[in-house]
Amino acid sequence: MIPRIYIPGDSGALALGAEKVAKAIASELAERGIEAKIVRNGSRGAYFLEPMVEVATANGRVAYGPVKPSDVKSLFDGGFLTGGHHKRWLGAPDKIPFLAKQTRLTFARCGVTDPLSLESYKKHGGLNGLTNALGLTPAAIVAQVTESGLRGRGGAGFPTGIKWKTVLDTSGDRKYIVCNADEGDSGTFADRMIMEGDPFVLIEGMTIAGIATGATKGFVYVRSEYPHAVAVMNKAVDVARKAGVLGASVMGSPYAFDMEIRVGAGAYVCGEETALLDSLEGKRGMVRAKPPLPAHKGLFGKPTVINNVISLASVPVIMDKGAAYYKDFGMGRSRGTIPIQIAGNVKYAGLFEAAFGMTLGEIVDEIGGGTATGRPVKAVQVGGPLGAYFPRTLFDTPFDYEAFAAKDGLIGHAGIVVFDDTADMLKQARFAMEFCAIESCGKCTPCRIGSTRGVETIDKLAAGIEPEKNLALVTDLCNTMKFGSLCALGGFTPYPVMSSITHFPDDFKPAPVRVAAE
Ligand SMILES: Cc1cc2nc3c(=O)[nH]c(=O)nc-3n(C[C@H](O)[C@H](O)[C@H](O)COP(=O)(O)O)c2cc1C
Ligand code: SF4
Q1: Do the domain assignments include residue 109?
Q2: pLDDT category, 265, cuts 50, 70, 90?
């Protein structure tokens, strides 16, 4: 049997040198006259071990990492093609503690299969969900998704089944499935990993959504910063079309569904669903007032499902294994699993898919291993740039939509960014306001003007000018933005600002006191 070597082609792994490692391995193979198949797989998400190279041996896969080009010669000398020992030897990938502790439902194939091989996809359970869906009525598919408890993973946590039912129940000569792959939140990369590592699961999820709601056309709106994801998705759509998974007759059924990949233009606000629709229609991305809901009047005025990549990519496993199976994971109203993206100043950065319910402390300290700098963790921002900063005292908060809301926070797209004790929370609060000012679409006053006034007021606080008055002013401004903004960009910017003020009051004390305290 020809040896098989897996070298991730994932952007994260590439950023860490995977391409150079792939070249070094290819030339070493040529030099030694060894015939082997190199598979450019996705990443399993343990980024602290990337580039992680795996070989398929008679006893299963063996991983090595993080591999440097300079390791390649000694890897061959040590017999790595048969799993031989080496200083980079990690053993069976699924026994690596960071991976072994996970519950991989949505990411089951990511890093395992060849992303562009439909055969490899099918061999690992791919298309089972779509096959089952084709045997059901659209209403029964929607009922399954509703019953699974799946909620939107893009940020708002809205029940996916209810959204689909609205589109199913709305008549239209044309309906659309739009996949939100704008992934603008800080510290997030789950959507990218799926698109690069298991693109067929997204295609399958979107196709099921089309059949369930009567939509015949899908668009994936990918942020422009993801060229690798765009390339892989385009190739995967081609493969799926040629294989009859997409097209006039989905897998030989009476249903038609096809899709296209579209590239965004680099604005955070274009991740907001209505601004995204404007952008997709070729306009400047401006937030639309609701109603009408996109489910009633969305893309080109037609009934449209807009879902995040992970929401859609979670549907195949639900349709394959059943709503009850999926629902069995999780806590409260947060059912199933959530791919937590651990980033920032953290020792073990990566993607950790787990059932809802782990505490923030477990995620940061046990899974993430604390800070990369070795200093104490000061704060963790959860849910992207609009998410609250959590101090250690809130580390017992379980990863659950309602539990985070109860602590004035949000899960968002499940990105967490860790900060050590050198972080200045006044600067972080200022950054939140500045980010909002830069990214605001400008449609409503509290966000457009409020964010700029917010930056100015925080600057006055930093300069020690009338601290009490200016702190009260920031709080007042936050209330106006929270309750008066049209969308969550202006409406949620107060979360990082107010959580910084509430949990880290010392950082907002006038300069002389801060100096004295230090
Ligand atoms: C400013 C802003 C940016 C957003 N960015 C994204 C994004 O990048 N990706 C995403 O899926 N949802 C994003 N959302 C949420 C979307 O508006 C929408 O709720 C989501 O696409 C719905 O899909 P879901 O129900 O599957 O989560 C953003 C919202 C706001 C207000
Ligand atoms: S809150 Fe900001 S981004 Fe949202 S509609 Fe208003 S101005 Fe636009």
Answers
A1: no
A2: confident
Residue 110 lies in a domain: no
Atom of ligand 1 nearest to the CA of 185: 8
pTM for this entry: 0.97
Q: How many domains does the chain have?
A: 4
If asked whether residues 511 and 381 sit together in one domain, one would say no
Q: Which numbered atom of ligand 2 lies nearest the CA of 269? A: 3
Structural domain includes residue 74: yes
Is there an atom of ligand 1 within 6 Å of 156 CB? yes
Most informative mutation of 192, 224, 270, 308 for ligand 1 (most atoms within 8 A of CB): 308
How far out from the chain centre does Cα 138 lie?
28
- Whether residue 314 sits in one domain with residue 359: no
Contacts of 407 (CB under 8 A, 6+ apart): 388, 390, 394, 397
| CA-based nearest residue to 25, from 7, 1, 46 | 7
Q: How confident is the model at residue 514 (pLDDT cuts 50, 70, 90)?
A: low
Range of the domain at 343: 330-420
E strand or H helix at 212: helix 199-213
For 152-172, b where at least 16 C-beta lie within 10 A, e where not — what string? bbbbebebbbebbbbbbebeb
- Angle CA(170)–CA(174)–CA(180) in degrees, nearest 5? 85
How would residue 103 be classed by pLDDT, with cut points 50, 70 and 90? very high
| Alpha carbon nearest to ligand 2 atom 4, residue | 487
Ligand 1 pocket test, candidate residues 146, 177, 180, most atoms within 8 A of CB = 180
Could you say which ligand is closest to the alpha carbon of residue 271?
1
Where residue 43 sits, what CATH number does that domain have? Answer: 3.40.30.10
Tell me the pLDDT tens digit for each residue of 412-433: 999 999 999 999 999 999 999 9
* Domain presence at residue 113: no
Measured in Å, residue 420 CA sits from the centre of ligand 2 at 31
Q: Is the CB of 157 under 6 A from ligand 1?
A: no
